[in-house]
């Protein structure tokens, strides 16, 4: 059954509704977090390790932005559903 465009999530709209890409990006960001955390708390991480971790961070950011550059620029995307709910309530309430 197809959902109306009003019911589609932003992930569906960019073709990622059933993708494992988000899981892979999440796993990678967890790995990067551990590497950076270890780098901060280790006595002296090697330059090679630090460079490799920053390289991996840049690659991760590139993948994340490529999901949908327009959505990356929509600063209110996280609040879209709340804003729609508020607009419905205002419309339903009618004139003051």
Helical segment count: 5
What proportion of the residues is helical, as a percent range? Answer: 55-70%
Average residue-wise pLDDT: 79
The arrangement of helices and strands along the chain is: HHHHH
Largest sheet: none
Any idea what the shape is?
Answer: elongated
Question: Helices and strands: which structural class?
Answer: mainly alpha
From the N-terminal CA to the C-terminal CA, the straight-line distance is 39 Å
* Low-pLDDT stretches: 1-5
Q: What is the number of strand segments?
A: 0
Q: Radius of gyration from the CA trace?
A: 20 Å
Beta-strand residue fraction: under 5%
Essential attributes:
single chain; 96 residues; mainly alpha; 0% strand; elongated; disordered N terminus
Q: Would you kindly provide a brief summary of this structure?
A:
By secondary structure, the chain is mainly alpha-helical. Helix content is 67%, strand content 0%.
